[in-house]
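Fold this sequence, please.
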Amino acid sequence: MMLTAQHITEAARLLGEAEQTHQQTGLISLRHPEATMDDAYAIQAEWMKQKLDMGRKVIGWKIGLTSRAMQQQLNITTPDSGVLLDNMLFHHGAIIPKNRFIQPRIEAEIAFVMKHALKGPNATSADVLAATDYIAPSLEILDTRIFRSDPATKKARNIVDTISDNAANAGIVMGAEKFDPRKVDMRWVGAIVTCNGEVEETGLGAGVLNDPALGIAWLANRLAIYGEALLPGQIVLSGSFIRAIEAPSGSDIVADFGAFGQVACNFA
């Protein structure tokens, strides 16, 4: 790590302030060009700690940057992760309150709900299947508390900014259907995602590391570095298999997963 504890605390404070005021904060990578991915996770952890101190509860995790295209775009070779909190959870058919988010976008994903704890450092996809209670169709709501690009320099945010910003996570919409992951070929679970009746994106689960369970194993192994694990009852978003879709006010989003169900929400 390159940043001081003071830098980390201040960056986390600015993220929280941006979320509350709907006024995005500047790029951490521009303010601290020496910052590493470890610094970014430290900022994320401090921001989440500040939220927990205000009464929030952890309900799970999200995994991002699982597609090869996104990794190449950011010049990395590994996914990233963020934290799901209790006030981020919505259910199929939810109306998202107006102005809840700054610049919301939507991704389609397979959500894993854990039945047993899953601990690294040597977790495999088989371990993931054994520890999972069920999988379900879901939407992830992304938001950006940090500018996507700096207004003055036009510098685009990078992996340090994204991880610090809780891997851009802001919410999850859970579908009602539940499936046994041992009886589903998740590579072929796909979705047609529409906004206001227009098809915006389609994709298959194979886009997530060729096996969404591999992302869950990766997360369990990463958390083991910090003495943490995936816990029973936690929800884990395994990564998107579509590009992110803009969802401004008035967007009616429907993800049709075919035999795997539907999940929808409306941004008021």
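The radius of gyration is 17 Å. Residues 57-267 form a domain with the Fumarylacetoacetate hydrolase; domain 2 fold (CATH 3.90.850.10).
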